[in-house]
Amino acid sequence: MSIVSICIPTRNRAEFLNELLGYISTFDELNYEVIISDNASNDDTAAVVMRWRPELRRIYYIKQQELLPANTNAHAVCNAARGEYMFRISDDDRVIEEGLLAAQKLMEDDAKISAVYPRWHICDAELKTLFDVVHYGLENLAPLYGDEDMSKFKKHAPVRITRQDALRMYEKFWTVELPIFRRSIFQRFMSGMSSQLPLDFHAAGRFLQHGDICFIPELAALVRKHDGQESAALYTPQVLDNYASDYELFLSSLPELDPVEAMKSYHTKLTSQYIVASRFAREKNDYLRAFEIIRKALAFRFSGVEDYAKSFQVEYQSKLLTAFIVEMVQITPGIDRVLLENSKPAIELETQISELLCDKTVELIDLNTMMSLPASENDFIIAADYETMERRLKSVGGNPARHRSFDDIFNSCLLV
Questions:
Q1: What percent of the chain has pLDDT over 90?
Q2: Which helix (H) or strand (E) holds 226?
């Protein structure tokens, strides 16, 4: 019977690794080997591996002597696999036998299938399910998240994707992660791709160059989400750049695709990613980052994006203006006092600004006071409009870097 290689890159997470190996030891049917690449850990990772040797059918342990980049270590563990099929999983997650068995059987029965994508759950730190990730091509199932009614989900036949279906998969699927795939394809055609792990659309495109891929309803993994992980995974510039890179590399695997169609698909996909990322930025109260991402989404003029931008602008305008002002004050050295010319926006924003600049004095002042107040390097002054700000600078002098106007700030924060 064929062997499934369960590949686990790890570093200094012996407790999580111990839990994962203990769960694998309960497998009854799967013919497996466990490959562990220890990325120069200085905890008791090696002792954990030794503890489970008698319980696991096959376990191979590689200790990296020098710290490698995480992606390189992931490449190393996959490159060491010996089984016919491979599945890479993080040391803090849990692999489910059901999904691996179903994927193994599909590929055993059909040599034209290069990779299989089972279902997986996003879980909290205790591995309690938060979301059920269903990324198939069935339109009423792709994907189901959060409050969606999972009682409607029924097991179904595998959804098969051929090379001719690749663009549709790319456009319709939210994610293509956690595949079980043929070792021969990875080691022959993909082993130099350490910077592209974890496997996503780029890898799916490579798999489709050498066979079909299937999406199945069986569960293969519980993926642990740690506190703060969403912000790192969804709206930081580096991660958005990684998404863009992944999409570009996927489309490069389809050289026969019409260039105009490829560009449209790319920008559609990227825009949808921007919208999701902006929502997560907003939920983390990073309104400036959300604003920046929405501006990027507006560049491609796709239907619905302008309406989304308008709704953001209406609902979160005061929070965005406050964030803009707070950042300007914080990056200006020596400011002790923020003076706002008494106006409608100043009245609306004063409390929010005061709460975020709790180490500074925030005051409303009338026009006469503002025009006669001596210049001070310790004051940051925001006039109602640009003309008033210019009049003050001409009248009493002062540093223009410590002066702004509400109308300019408003225009700077305008999306549409």
A1: 64
A2: none
Q: Choose among 255, 262, 323: nearest CA to 287.
A: 323
Average pLDDT, the chain: 88
State the pLDDT at residue 153. 56
Fold of 322-412: Cobalt-precorrin-4 Transmethylase; domain 1 (3.40.1010)
**Region 4-226: CATH code:** 3.90.550.10
Both tokens assigned to 385: 């409009």
Helix intervals (H) in 135-236 = 166-172, 183-185, 201-208, 229-234
67 DSSP 8-state letter:
-
Cα–chain-centroid distance for residue 215? 22
% residues pLDDT > 70 (the chain): 90
Residue 178, SS3 per DSSP: coil
Residue 46, both tokens: 């090696």
Q: For the chain, what's the residue count? A: 416
- Which residues 6+ apart lie within 8 Å of 359 measured at CB? none
Residue found by looking up tokens 């002002």 in the block: 325
Q: Is the peptide bond before 179 cis (omega within 30 degrees of 0)?
A: no
Query: In this structure, what token pair is assigned to residue 7?
Result: 């590949």
Stretch 96-118: mean pLDDT: 96
24 with 55: CB under 8 angstroms? no
Is 352 exposed, middle or buried (CB count within 10 Å of its CB: 0-12, 13-18, 19+)? middle
pLDDT interval class at 108 (50, 70, 90): very high
What is the secondary structure of 307-376 as a DSSP string?
HHHHHHHHHHHHHHHHHHHHHHHHTSTT--EEEEESSHHHHHHHHHHHHHTTTSEEEEE-HHHHHHSPP-
The torsion defined by the Cα of 92, 96, 184 and 7, in degrees rounded to 10, comes to: 20
Confirm if 3 and 83 have CB atoms less than 8 A apart.
yes
Domain extents for the chain?
4-226, 237-302, 322-412
Most distant CA pair in the chain: distance in Å?
Answer: 88
Structural tokens at position 20: 């994962």
pLDDT digits (tens, 9 = 90+) for 216-274: 989 999 988 876 555 455 788 888 888 888 888 888 888 888 889 889 989 988 998 89
| pLDDT band per the 50, 70, 90 thresholds, residue 154 | low
